[in-house]
């Protein structure tokens, strides 16, 4: 009834696609659990590797009950299976034919077919009444057809038990009668052992005297009356004496007939105790030792009784055939045991089927080398690990699924279940609603990260010495973050350098030097720390405010890319401002600038390349920043490897025929990429970052004539600084009585 109601109101969901089953959609119903699925969904599921049974030969499994089926459904039929592609009728059950069901009921002893209309789910119990006998068959009762309850009366069963001698004493019961519980005594064939068994127990063979074999030596007197039977306990009678004259026709080794020995003068045997004549030849009987290649034989003269032990040795090889050992010959059984158990200590170095691990088995004879370890690699979701046996190639997608709604932080955007494992929260275009540290307007959208991006609101800030207010500063930058003390000995004021967060291409600045008005007299020493620009001595800080015009214009556009900018990427801001604004923001040329222009014109007249270094000025003294030195001290081996690679690249391009050579580094974190960018500037190498996190990498390119190898590497400079440092003071301890 529940299935009919859900299918009629279109509220039943397919377990494969989690979509509603429509009235006109082709479906398939499992005959074991009666779940209804889309026909196309169940076809795709049956062909997928995940649906296969564990043994691999039992077909595919139902998604609901895991019942294995061999055939894949191909056609759309009604629930009773009579009509193909049934048409929907408003007055009938969806996906039914409207005729009588006629299917056989689940009860095995019910002969009646289902008499209701074609329906989903199991057929109801049979309403007919039949006459059934009790378990013992002595009484009869009228019950409903298909009733599973057994009928039992109060009479004694009385059926004959398995022994055929006694009757069952139990009250009317189901199934066969229990075996007879009475015990009887049996004797073995040789008459030396007895045992008690249940009446009716199966006897091996009865010879009229005994019923079983005790597995001991028989020991009965043979027909000769002189020797005893040496066979294992057996049914009567015993065999003839093997030494009777009428039984023995040859010598003990079997090579010569006794008739020939009688002709040579041997005494004829009369009874079984007379000795058997010997032929005098070598016995030659095969011994129980030896191997498949060489059979050892008895070397004694023809004799009676057992042969002597073998005096030869045998070669035994280990299982893999790598090692052999020589041992004395034993019996064949012992020789086979020794050959199986003997193993060498050589470990197999072949790769297992996964291609990741080695076999590492001792004396290995395996040909497939299957890996029994668990894969354990992280799946694409990043939360769960692969639980399949170690394998080649990529792992399957994570099958974990959540049936809870996945929302953004504010709850506006929703991903409805089922949600595959590892799915990121949906993107939301609403403004972020988290609690922020400041009360400025919020410009960024709702996000799933716990920490919000820094506030990009432009505000005013004091300089380090509290002398002047600087306008147009980003909110998230404080004085300690963008200032660095350079020298406080001149005029008692604090001078600092604002490290620009944006690396500008071509003609724009990289570092800005900001000083308050009180420090203008000592501005020259600060200017020397700015790498790409030369400023006039005595330039006041308020004139440098023009530099910040660029930063104010591009602040909002660049704020969303702060992460990439801190990694060393360059941003072209010339498109954000006009040429007139660019001209107004430039500094006026001074005497030093005029000297540089004069030198440049002179170099052009003498045809001197700007990239050349004829007087070894650039390579004489490379300057490494303090930040680079601090980073290098944290990971000195990484910096040494990077410098070695850069030197090899520069030497290769300067000595080779090509004008450029590039090298691609593997993906690494932002700190290592920043070190590469700064070292590339010292070596005159171009460096560019590619791809997104976490696969972001750096590609460096050395240009012939432009890239140089500095005389002092960063690692050597750090070593000299370490050696020049004074040793730490030795602590003095106060001497006590103890």
Provide the fold topology.
Layout: H1 2-8, E1 27-29, E2 36-38, H2 39-47, E3 60-61, E4 68-69, E5 129-133, E6 140-144, E7 183-187, E8 194-198, H3 258-263, E9 313-317, E10 324-328, H4 332-341, E11 401-402, E12 406-407, E13 414-415, E14 419-420, E15 458-462, E16 469-474, H5 479-482, E17 496-498, E18 503-504, E19 512-514, H6 523-527, H7 547-559, H8 562-566, E20 570-571, H9 579-585, H10 591-605, H11 626-634, H12 636-655, E21 660-664, H13 670-683, E22 686-690, E23 697-703, H14 714-724
Parallel strand pairs: 18-20
Antiparallel strand pairs: 1-2, 3-4, 5-6, 7-8, 9-10, 11-14, 12-13, 15-16, 17-19, 21-23, 22-23
Summarize the structure.
The chain is α+β, with helices and mostly antiparallel strands and about 750 residues long.
Strands of the widest sheet, in order across it, are 21-23-22
**Averaged pLDDT:** 77
Oligomer: single chain
The fraction of residues assigned to DSSP E strands is 5-15%
Bin the helical content. 10-25%
Main structural class: alpha+beta
Low-confidence stretches: 480-554, 560-568, 616-620, 733-738
Count the helices. How many? Answer: 14
Query: How many strands, what sense, and barrel or not for the largest sheet?
Result: 3 strands, antiparallel
The rough form would be described as: flat
Q: Termini, distance in Å?
A: 95 Å
Radius of gyration (Å): 50 Å
Q: Please provide the count of β strands.
A: 23
Pfam family, one: zf-NF-X1
Organism: Tachuris rubrigastra
InterPro entries: NFX1_fam, R3H_dom, R3H_dom_sf, R3H_NF-X1, Zinc_finger_PHD-type_CS, Znf_NFX1, Znf_PHD-finger, Znf_RING
Main location: nucleus
